[in-house]
Structures are given as structure tokens and as C-alpha cells.
Write a sequence for this structure.
């Protein structure tokens, strides 16, 4: 049977279980788009900016456990996608990005909409391909999905010239499995190191588990909770590891780091054993790595050997799949720790954190108050997509977690991530309640995707904190030895109520905390999507 390269591409995607693609068409990707049209079993979302195709694929991948797929054209289409790819790379999200390319005979001649996209994205992809023979597409796609989803997940790019998409191939061969020489990611942990970990846990009197994004990537939530509960070890989390434990779980201490919870940071400061699980120990989470490694024993479990020792030395390193390694530890006969006094001390810290009274200002609402009351009303399995800025810090600290997911850009810190990520998540799990938390700065970076929400008739609830400034930069400029705030006033911002109405989406305004409960109830009860614009005083900071 003869097939074109474009047909081979789509057939290969079908064989990988792809059921949705996020993209933006253009001249050099038209053959692939045309082939896609013949397969309605694969859904398609037309994004309004290519960057958001990457964010949608990311949100889709994070809640579905599958590889997210995005597809755009060459030149500016491909370069616009770069930030979406880099965001996925920094957060270790499995994604395959497909780009069209100018005819292979014209490569390197700087013709219209040509760009060396494989060269441009090399620093932040696991691998990339420039396909020069359509017959090799089945193998390329098979390898790309394998690379994206195994070991430490991440994005892989496939660049396909238009003539390769149009090339005819007689009887293409679709491989059933893949074997990449030199790529053998570790799965099981070293038995001797497992024994050392068990011994360290049994001897500790003030242990702490630090859960990172790798726990979610490995689908190891159950194993981590079992470990914590079996040995009564309190859990702190990095930003990417949030929602592993519900907020009301007695062992949950919250987020660590420069913007973390006091309780979590106090626990870390007083611990005698730190068990880092699937986290990179970056600067936002671990403020003083030298002090920690000098003062306490550390165990670092991660699938990527490059992460161990990068930011902080570990006394006991363990390389492998987090889920497998945690099960190995659980299968050993580890003596129970005597940590009763430690837990009692932490309960006092935790109680003070949860009972904190937030400040009030007339004519505005405090973000922590909004988020605390919102969280209490959400479904147990709700997906909450949080943007970058002050809203991210408020949400990570104060939004009550249940059994759902909190998605945010923790690695690259990409503003405008939350709205497209929510579209991706809602596409994957349409039955799940989906909420966006963003600021008026980040919202304006992605509000054109309200069109995608409307086209798909999605029910996505959007919390928009309107303080008329780039809040976090404004806060930094005020508290650091600068000349005061500059270049942060969001003058000229549109009337968001009118913007919402233009897309056929209703909106509400919250500016009175006495009426906040009623407003939140109306907001969540609205049929379909709705935007709640929360008036926030520009001087409100994350330390208030």
C-alpha cells in the first residue's frame, strides 16, 4: 500500500494512541493537516498563538499520563512554539512537537519562513529529528514517543520538510518496538542503597520527606503517601510536588522555599533526615543547600542521575523510577521511627499556618481569602491551573488541596501558562472540574485562547486577580534596593468584563469580602465558563 509521508505521520500517531493534537496550520504543515482531516478519531484544537499549543499539550499530558502532541508550521510558527517547548522541558513534561519545514532541497538558503528549529531547540529538548526520508517516519515517531515518555520525561521535536510530507512510500514499515542504543534509563534502585535508605529512616528522629514533580511524573502518589503514613514522616513539597497530599492530611506541612509556608520551612530547618523524592533541589525550593547538607543526612531519589548532586550533595543517592524505588523501600522490613515528639512540635506550627487571619482592605479582596474559600467549594478531584506571579505564590500557599491536581509552570516560570494548560487538561479529562488562577498581567498573555474555550464549549472557571500592576515585580522593586517601581503599571488594560462578553463568557466582580461567599457560589454555579474578576489592592504582597 502506498502512503504519503503525511499519511504515515498520522498513522504513526494513531499507533501511539494519540487522540488529540493542539496546533496552528501553515503552508509547510498543510499536507499533515490534510491527512489529519481524514481521521476524525483524532481531535484537533486550533490555538490562537503557537506557544499555547505547547502549554495545552503540557496540561493534557500532566493529567492524562499520556504524551501531549502539538503541531505547527515552519518559521515564526516554530519559533513561537519554542517557549512552550522550553516550559515542558523545565517541568519534565512528555511532549512531541511536530513542525513543518521548507522543502528539503532549499534548506539553508534562508527562504521564506525557514528557520533552523532543530538547532534552536537543542538545549531544551531530549532529542529532535529533521526527517529527510518519509520511509523513516514510523521509526522516528516511535522513537520520539519512547524518548518523551521514559526516563526523565521531556519534549521531543520532529521537523518535517513539506516535500517529505508529500513523498510517496510503498508499503511503509511500522515498528512494534524501539531499541535506542545508549539510551537505557534506570528503573530499579541499587539494592545496597535501598538498604542504606531503610537504615537511615529507622534511625531518624526528625525526618522529613520532600515531594517534587517527579512523584507525579512517575505516578507514585500512592507509594509516597504509604511511606509517609507507615513511618509517620511529615511531608513538605516543592511547587511542582503540590497536591500529593490533601491540605488537611496530618502529615502535610505545605510548600518549602523562598515563597513557602512557615511550617514547611521550619520543619526543614529542624530535620535530621531529608528524603528528597523526585525534586531538583533548585534555588526557589532549597534556599541554603550548603547549610542543609552540612547539618543533616540527605537521601535523593530521582530518575535523572544529572539532578543528583547538581544543587546539593546527597549522602545516599538513588537513581531510578521513583514509583519502583519507593515500592522497594516499602517492601523492606524497616524499623518504625520514634518521631512522636517531632510530630507534636510540627502540629503547633501547622495549626498556626492554617488558622492565619488575612488582612482586609475596603473595596478589594485579599487573594489568600479568596483562594481559601474557593478551595473549600471545589470538587475533591478538581484540576487547578495556576499562572506565574503573585497569584502563583498565593495559590501554592493558601489554596486548600484535596485529591485533585495543581498545575503550574514551576521550572521556567512562564506567564500565560495557566489558561492554555487548563484547556489541555479539560480536553483530556472533560468530566473534571477545571479552574484557572491568574493575574491581570498573565491573563493578558493568553486571553486570546478564550476563543478556543468558546469553540469547544468548555466549562472552565477563571479567577482573575486584578491589581493593575505586575504584582511580583512591583513587590520586588519596592522591597529591594532599587529606585522604586518602574515599568509595572498595567495602564491601558482592557475592560475584562467586556472582553469576556465579546467571547460570549459571563463574568462577575468580587470587591467586597462580606459578599465573597455569595459571589463564589454564583461563580461556580454558572453554566459553562465564567470569569471572576477579583479586585486586589496594588500594594498587597505575598508576605502580607
Amino acid at each position: 500500500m502506498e502512503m504519503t509521508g503525511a499519511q504515515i505521520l498520522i498513522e504513526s500517531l494513531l499507533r501511539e494512541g494519540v487522540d488529540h493534537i493542539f496546533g496552528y496550520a501553515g503552508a509547510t504543515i498543510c499536507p499533515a493537516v490534510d491527512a489529519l482531516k481524514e481521521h476524525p478519531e483524532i481531535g484537533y484544537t486550533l490555538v490562537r498563538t503557537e506557544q499555547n499549543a505547547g502549554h495545552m499539550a503540557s496540561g493534557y499530558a500532566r493529567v492524562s499520563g499520556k504524551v501531549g502532541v502539538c503541531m505547527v508550521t515552519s518559521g515564526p510558527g516554530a519559533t513561537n512554539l519554542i517557549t512552550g517547548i522550553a516550559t515542558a522541558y523545565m517541568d519534565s513534561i512528555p511532549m512531541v512537537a511536530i513542525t513543518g519545514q521548507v522543502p528539503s532541497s532549499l534548506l539553508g538558503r534562508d527562504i521564506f519562513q525557514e528557520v533552523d528549529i532543530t538547532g534552536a531547540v537543542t538545549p531544551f529538548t531530549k532529542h529532535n529529528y529533521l526527517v529527510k526520508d518519509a520511509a523513516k517516519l514510523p521509526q522516528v515517531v516511535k522513537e520520539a514517543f519512547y524518548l518523551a515518555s521514559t526516563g526523565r520525561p521531556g519534549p521531543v521535536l520532529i521537523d518535517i520538510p513539506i516535500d517529505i510530507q508529500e513523498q510517496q512510500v510503498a508499503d511503509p514499515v511500522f515498528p512494534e518496538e524501539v531499541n535506542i542504543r545508549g539510551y537505557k534509563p534506570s528503573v530499579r534502585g541499587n539494592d545496597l542503597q535501598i538498604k542504606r535508605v531503610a537504615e537511615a529512616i529507622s534511625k531518624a528522629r526528625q525526618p522529613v520527606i520532600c515531594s517534587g514533580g517527579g512523584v507525579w511524573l512517575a505516578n507514585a502518589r500512592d507509594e509516597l503517601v504509604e511511606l509517609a503514613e507507615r513511618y509517620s514522616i511529615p511531608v513538605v513539597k516543592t511547587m511542582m510536588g503540590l497536591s500529593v497530599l490533601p491540605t488537611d492530611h496530618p502529615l502535610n506541612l505545605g510548600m518549602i522555599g523562598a515563597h513557602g509556608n512557615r511550617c514547611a520551612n521550619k520543619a526543614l530547618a529542624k530535620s535530621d533526615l531529608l528524603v528528597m523524592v523526585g525534586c531538583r533541589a533548585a534555588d526557589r525550593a532549597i534556599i541554603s543547600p550548603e547549610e542543609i547538607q552540612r547539618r543533616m543526612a540527605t537521601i535523593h531519589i530521582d530518575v535523572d542521575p544529572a539532578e543528583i548532586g547538581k544543587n546539593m550533595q546527597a549522602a545516599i543517592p538513588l537513581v531510578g523510577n521513583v514509583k519502583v524505588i519507593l515500592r522497594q523501600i516499602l517492601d523492606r522490613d524497616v524499623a518504625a521511627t520514634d518521631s512522636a515528639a517531632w510530630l507534636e512540635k510540627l502540629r503547633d506550627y501547622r495549626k498556626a499556618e492554617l488558622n492565619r487571619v488575612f488582612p482586609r482592605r475596603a473595596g478589594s479582596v485579599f487573594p489568600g481569602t479568596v483562594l481559601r474559600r474557593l478551595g473549600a467549594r471545589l470538587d475533591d478531584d478538581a484540576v487547578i491551573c495556576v499562572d506565574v506571579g503573585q497569584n502563583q505564590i498565593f495559590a501554592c500557599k493558601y489554596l486548600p488541596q484535596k485529591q485533585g491536581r495543581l498545575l503550574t509552570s514551576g521550572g521556567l516560570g512562564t506567564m500565560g501558562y495557566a489558561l492554555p494548560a487548563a484547556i489541555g487538561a479539560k480536553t483530556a479529562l472533560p468530566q473534571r472540574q477545571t479552574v484557572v488562577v491568574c493575574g491581570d498581567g498573565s491573563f493578558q498573555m493568553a486571553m486570546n485562547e478564550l476563543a478556543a474555550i468558546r469553540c469547544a464549549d468548555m466549562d472552565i472557571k477563571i479567577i482573575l486577580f486584578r491589581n493593575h500592576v505586575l504584582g511580583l515585580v512591583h513587590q520586588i522593586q519596592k522591597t529591594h534596593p532599587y529606585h522604586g517601581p518602574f515599568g509595572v503599571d498595567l495602564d491601558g488594560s482592557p475592560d475584562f468584563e467586556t472582553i469576556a462578553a465579546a467571547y460570549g463568557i459571563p463574568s462577575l466582580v468580587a470587591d467586597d469580602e462580606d459578599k465573597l461567599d455569595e459571589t463564589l457560589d454564583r461563580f461556580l454555579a454558572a453554566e459553562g465558563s465564567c470569569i471572576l474578576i477579583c479586585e486586589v489592592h496594588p500594594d498587597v504582597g505575598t508576605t502580607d
About this structure: The chain has a mean pLDDT of 92. Residues 300 and 308 are 7 Å apart (CA to CA).
